[in-house]
C-alpha cells in the first residue's frame, strides 16, 4: 500500500473572492487559490465557512523524517508534476505510517522488541512470538527481563552518551543490538534486535566466500596483460585494471568516477567502445586509438538484467600497436575489399551494360561528378561532343540517378526522323489532323515522357520552324497536339545532345539564339576518346567481357593489340571502339586476338617501328636514323609540311629541308 491509496480525490478549486461570498458553495471540500493560482487555503465540508491553512508537500516528501506535516490538520499532496494529487487529514497519515512501520518491523526475520521508559514491552514482531510460543497479549506490557533475563537494554534509557550497543549473549547463541528511540532530543524508549548465532555464522561464511572470490577476481583483474574496463549502464567508469597506465597513460583513479563520454571528448581514447555498446545494445569489437598513440583491439560486452536493461559494460583491450598481425589483417582486408569491388564492377557491367560508365581519365571523372550533381535537380542539360563519345550513355546516367528514375526515359534522334514527321512525333496529333493520321489520334513524346526524362539527341538538326514550337513547350510546360486546340500540361525533364557547335550555328542563323540559351542551362562537354587515352584500355576490356558474355566466347587480346588500340586516334570514338571489339570477338577463331587480326585501318599502328639501339653506333648516325623514322611516320599521317612541323615542334622550313635531304619526297 502506498500513500496515494489513502488520498481523497474529491475537491474543487475556488477563488478567494468566491469563497468570501460564501454563496452556493455546497458541502464538498474546496481548495482556495489566489489570483496567481497559488494555493492559499482549504475549506472543509464540515465547516465550509472556516478557512484552514494546509500543509503542501510533494508526495515523496511525506515519508521524510525531516518533514513537519504533523503541524497541519490537513495536508495537500502534490504529484511530481506539481499538480494536486489529493488531500489527507493528519490523523490519517499517522495511522498510515503506523501501519507501514508496524508491518515492516513485524516482518523482520530477527527478534525485534521495543520497550518504553519503564522497560515495559509495547511491541514485538512475529519472530519473538514464534520463538517464545506466546501471543501478543502475553507479551505487551511485560518487563523485558521476563523474556530476556540478561538484557541490559534499559541501560540505554539513562545513558547520556551511547545510543547504540552491540553485545554477545551470555550463552554465546546470538548477538543483541540495542538502540535508543529518540523524539527530538529526548529518549522515549529503546529497540532490541536479537540475531541468532546460526544466522550470523551463515552470513559470515558467505562473507568469507565473497571476500575470497573478490580477492581472486582482484588478482586476475590487476595481473591481466589486457586492460579490463568496467562501466555502469550510464557510461560511468566503475573499475579499470592496472594496465591502463601503460596503455593509456592514466592511473585507474584518474578514470574511475568519470563518464566515458567525458574521457572520449578529452581524447583519452577514440572511439569509446562503451558508448558504442550502449548505443547498439550489443557486443562491439573495434580498433581504438589512445591519447598516447597506441592502437587497441577492444571487445565491449554488455551485461543485462532480467528485463534486458544494460547494467554493466565490460571492455577487454589488447595492445596491437607493435604486432605485425595488424598489417597482415589490413592487407587481407584491402584484398578483400578489392575483390568485392571487382565483383561489384562485374555485376554492374553485366546488369547495366549500355548504361555503364567505364572510365579512368580525370576528364570523364569531372563529367560524371557534374552529371551526378545535376541529376538531383531538373535543370535543362545540353551535352556536346563528337559523334560516338557516349552522350546517350551520360543522359541515361543522369536519369537513373534522378528522382525521375522510376518514370519514363524516352530517347529520340531528331536527325533520324524526317522533318515533316518530327513535329507529330514530339507533340502528337488529334484524329483527322492530316492525311494518313490515325483515326484515334496519337500522343507525342512529350506526353509519353510525363514526369520522366526526354532525351533529344542531335538537337541541332531540328528545323527552325519547329524550334519556335519547341521553345514554347519548354517555357510554358504544355503542348498542343497537331490539329488540336486544348493544351496538355507536361512535367518533363529535358536533356539535349549535339555534335555541332550550337553557338556557331546560332551565329550563322541556323539555330535560334533564345532556344540555345534555354537549352544550355547546364552544359556538359564530353571530350573525344583521343583526348582521354586513359579510358581506351578500360573500355576495351569492358567490351571484350561484354561480347564474350553475349556471344558465349572466351577471347582475349594480346598485349601488343592493347598497345595498338591505346595508340589509335579513334575518329569514331567509343562507338568505333565498341564495334571493332565486337567484330574481333565474332570473326576471329583463335582464342587470342593478335595484331594481324586488326582491321586494315590499323596498319600504321601495326607497322610503327619501335626506337631502340641494338649496337653501338656514332651518335650523329643514331640521331639521323631517329629523324628519318619520325619524318616517315609524320609524312604518312599528315598531308602538309605545315602540319608535320606543328606536330614535331619545329619550323616548316626545317621539315622541308630534311625531307629533301633524306629523299623522302
TrEMBL record:
Pfam families: AAA_lid_14, PAS_9, Sigma54_activat. GO terms for biological process: regulation of DNA-templated transcription. Keywords: ATP-binding, Coiled coil, DNA-binding, Nucleotide-binding, Transcription, Transcription regulation. Residues 357-586 form the Sigma-54 factor interaction domain. The keyword Transmembrane helix does not apply. PROSITE patterns: PAC, PAS, SIGMA54_INTERACT_1, SIGMA54_INTERACT_2, SIGMA54_INTERACT_3, SIGMA54_INTERACT_4. Residues 97-151, 213-263 form the PAS domain. One of its GO terms (molecular function) is DNA binding. SUPFAM superfamilies: Homeodomain-like (SSF46689), P-loop containing nucleoside triphosphate hydrolases (SSF52540), PYP-like sensor domain (PAS domain) (SSF55785). Residues 280-332 form the PAC domain. Residues 323-350 form a coiled coil. NCBIfam families: sensory_box (TIGR00229). This is Fis family transcriptional regulator.
